[in-house]
Amino acid sequence: MGALHYLSTFCTVSSTRGKTKSMQKVEIKVKMDCDGCERRVKNAVKHMKGVKSVEVNRKQSQVTVSGYVDPNKVLKRVKDTGKRAEFWPYIPYNIVHNPHLSQLYDKRAPAGFVRNVTVPVLNPTEERISYLFSDDNPNACSIM
Prior knowledge:
The protein has 144 residues and is an alpha+beta fold. The chain has a domain at 24-88: 2-Layer Sandwich (Alpha-Beta Plaits), CATH 3.30.70. 31% of the residues lie in helices and 20% in strands. The chain contains 5 helices and 6 strands; from the N terminus they run αβαββαβββαα. The protein has helices at 2-11, 35-46, 71-79, 124-132, 140-143; strands spanning 24-30, 51-57, 62-67, 85-87, 90-92, 113-115. Strands 2-3-1-4 form a 4-stranded antiparallel beta sheet, with helices on one face. Strands 5-6 form a two-stranded antiparallel ribbon. The protein is flat. This is HMA domain-containing protein. Its main location: membrane. It comes from Buddleja alternifolia. Residues 23-86 form the HMA domain.
């Protein structure tokens, strides 16, 4: 039985293709000023292999690509048009715990969005010390 199994490994057909990409939605921030910019970006991306749909929102400076694509290749293709591009850095305002932190606020963000950053969490000792000098503490004036 071992010899038969050994010989069967030579007879099996193995695929040399790479892994198939999963369906993805890639959001990119691209500065677009006119219809020509919008058309150039859209045409560059829609002819890529695996792209199912391309949506351009010039008002928000956002390009959304759906399909079986690599996000880094899409970003590179958009940058090759001569436009400054980056992955979409914003998240909706209502899912952020405290959207008024200085790291999150970005005046260039579209309405209803804040920047997607991780906010450092203070340990209990640092939190207690910072509370001593906080405006929320009614006894803070006596300490100062």
